[in-house]
Amino acid sequence: MENEIREGYADTAARVVSVIFHPVFMPLFGMLLIFSAPTLFGFLPFNVKKILFSVVLLNNLLLPLSLLPYLKYRKYINSWTMETRKERMLPLFITTVLYAATSYIIIRYPVPLFIKTYIMGIFLISLAITAVTLWWKISIHATACGAVTAMVVVLTFKMSSYLMWPLLLVIMCSGLVLSARLRLNSHSPAEVWLGYSGGFAGLGLLMWLI
């Protein structure tokens, strides 16, 4: 009985972690890290930060979430968690289109190239995930964690800043998320680790070179 209770608590904790660090939230978490880090980006005018954050919040969080009830009503998805590869295709396509729109808006806005590259990188990763999902169910949670980790690493080196605590935070959170996805049997170890590696390498390489 005690083992069953512990297992139930562990499963609940894994679900909570999966919701808190859902991929739809991760770009916003990344922007918060950029704006709060002790770098030049932390001194951007508040109005600029507010506009950038609001664009991502509206286009890439509120709008996708508002479409989920319609997709479920039309039976394009069977559950809110979208466990199967097939039912992920349309939401991923919509997400990619919305990130393309966000990239277009932010690229035209007079903000540092680092931030523009971050948003464009997320769009390209979303496009890559959509393509991969045509034949394989990669972990989007893990990919998002890898991308945010890469952003903090690149920010550390490019800005020559001491970002040990933000880096430790994203690594610890990534470990929790990857463990949660494996705990819930939502993905195989290969799907999780390739997702994390792909997100890290993809965004990290782009942001380092530009």
Structure description:
The protein is mostly helical and 210 residues long. The chain has one domain (2-209). The chain is built from 8 helices and no strands. The chain has helices at residues 2-20, 26-36, 46-73, 85-107, 113-132, 140-158, 164-183, 189-209. Helix 4 packs antiparallel against helix 5 (113-132) and helix 5 packs antiparallel against helix 6. The longest helix has 28 residues, at 46-73.
Unreliable segments (pLDDT under 50, ≥5 consecutive)? none
Kindly name the structural category: mainly alpha
Shape field: globular
Strand content: under 5%
Count of discrete domains: 1
Helix content: over 70%
Q: Please summarize the sheet with the most strands.
A: none
List the helices and strands and how they pair.
Layout: H1 2-20, H2 26-36, H3 46-73, H4 85-107, H5 113-132, H6 140-158, H7 164-183, H8 189-209
